[in-house]
Amino acid sequence: MPQEVVIIGSVSMGPKAAARFKRLELDSKVTLLDQETLISYACGGISYLVGGDLMGAHILRQTNFQVLRDEKYYREVLGVTMRTNTRALSIDRRDKKVLIENTATGERELLPYDKLVLATGKRPKPFSVPGADLKGVFDVYSLKSAERVREWIVNPGASKAVIIGGGLTGLELVPALSDMWDIEVSIVEQSSQLLPEHIGPSLAMMVKHHLEEKGAAVYLKESIVRLEGNGTVQRVVTDKRILETDLVIVATGVEPNSDLAKEAGLDISSGGAIMVNNNMQTSDPLIYAGGDCVEVTNLITRKPGYFPWPSIAQRQGRVIGTNLAAGNAEFKGAVGNYAAKFFDLTIACAGLNIHAARREGFDAVTAMVSQIERAHFFHQKDHLYLELVVEKTSGRVLGIQGISDAGDGLVGRVNTIAALLEYGPSASEVGNLEIAYAPQFSAAMDVVNTLGNSAENVLFGRGRTMDPIEFKSLWPEMGKNGWIVLDTRFTHEAEPFVKRYPDRWKHISTTELLARKHEVPRDKKLIVLCKTGERSYDSHVILNDMDLEDNRNLQGGLMYLMQCGMISPDLTEVIEHEMLVQNSESLGPEDEKEDLLFTAMRQG
Q1: How far apart are CA 311 and CA 382, in angstroms?
Q2: At a CB cut-off of 8 Å and minimum separation 6, what does 566 contact?
Q3: Which residue, 38, 230, 414, 507, shows the most beta carbons closer than 10 Å to its own?
Q4: pLDDT digits (tens, 9 = 90+) for 276-308
Q5: Minimal CA–CA distance to 127: which of 249, 305, 309?
Q6: pLDDT in tens, 361-375
Q7: Cα Rg for the chain, rounded, in angstroms?
Q8: Cβ within 8 Å of residue 337, ≥6 positions away
Q9: Structural class in CATH, domain 337-459
Q10: Backbone angles phi, psi at 262, to 5 degrees
Q11: Residue ranges, CATH 3.50.50.60, the chain
């Protein structure tokens, strides 16, 4: 028997559910509602619209065949009634009716349904500092708001912008503003690193360095106190500084838009999202919900998780469309698999980063590697920087994160691990994972295998490691604090460091270590390093066999330090620790001259 289905929300999940259902039940009636006029668009392209890569918002609303997904498209192609400028005010679950209002005329009516779908999406988290209502302050979580940002840039114009929030949305806007519009961009993030929900601190340091190289200013551990201006924003006041600006973009995150469901008496989670089962049914079996307004199972923690991501919404829409037509499709949950690009740098991450893993109660450690994505003899190759998060006791892999200029290669590797995470793979299984080999695509021992093997070594006590963050903290007093570097590269690679830092940098190559082991200082704690961490691991094993327990292998090697901005591209300068920068006023002339050797790359 034909059904009447009403779907509230027409951005991503709603249209997908409508299209799937109509392909299964052509005779049934579907009505799509949305309070906006800009509907059915690709959310992931918003930064490209702001940045001028797209000629207009209509491009994000087109099919793969350049057909605009408007009311006419849904009516004539899919047989769906699309009603824009229509707000759903309430749901009468007993009589199965939705009270709707035309936002242009104020006219109200009751719309009956046999089954109802909630695709009400997300909304920006409240941002309530003084001055938040000034002109020139925007969010970019919808196509409409992105258009407003672009219009503002064109008229009245902007030369300086402050992005509040260092998450994916905020950082994707940095190249959008600076490349096309030549806007000077500052980023203010209240946590101690960028992308705190997605990557660990070492990889975050790489992102920060890359953005600074491209001209952006990054301010961490700062809170917004107020915005100032005479009707239009002119200044952003943090707890540490004042930033002049004529454009502010608030990218502090989103929350589920679940008010309609809550008022209808549907079950809502502690996080404010609509609760659904694996069939995407709410606590009322005639009402389905999906997309950015729901929580689903986190397949790693097995707890409710919030994943406001277009690809997840699309897959949930297909499940809902199937089940509206008496199917039994399931959406079991997600691990959280994301990718983004900032200028030349791609990041990709799946599962839990080290912060999230420990927050969830896992006794977790990380393993980091740096390795070229192709065979060493292939003429074109880029480094991949990968980090694996594993549980100590079980060896279970909890997440993977990575950074590279080689975006496709990076995303492919992370996707591979993401597909396994719900099954709880071990580090040793990742080390033995079968990866397609051809020199132009990968090494015979792919970087994913190396990453798993490195994690296994850490778990079984075959390697004691140090990450770039700890190296940075030790560097200012190295040589005096009992730590020195043992450089295991070849002489021509290590010589500039040995000459510059004779009190803290010693060189014995891996190929000579057995013959020269009597030269290894036994009264020092050793940071063993090479370019990528591979040679230094071999040396680390030898030192362990010599009963030198106070030696640590630098994960990822000098390539990690370089990408963090701690080593210049010619591998001859190490940056000054932030504490020395802050205390430079107390240095004498000779000390100041010496410390200039540690000038940060962001200072040129």
Answers
A1: 28
A2: 468, 471, 472, 574, 575
A3: 414
A4: 999 999 999 999 999 999 999 999 999 999 999
A5: 249
A6: 999 999 999 998 888
A7: 27
A8: 349, 350, 351, 414, 415, 418
A9: alpha beta
A10: -65, -45
A11: 4-123+255-324, 137-252, 337-459
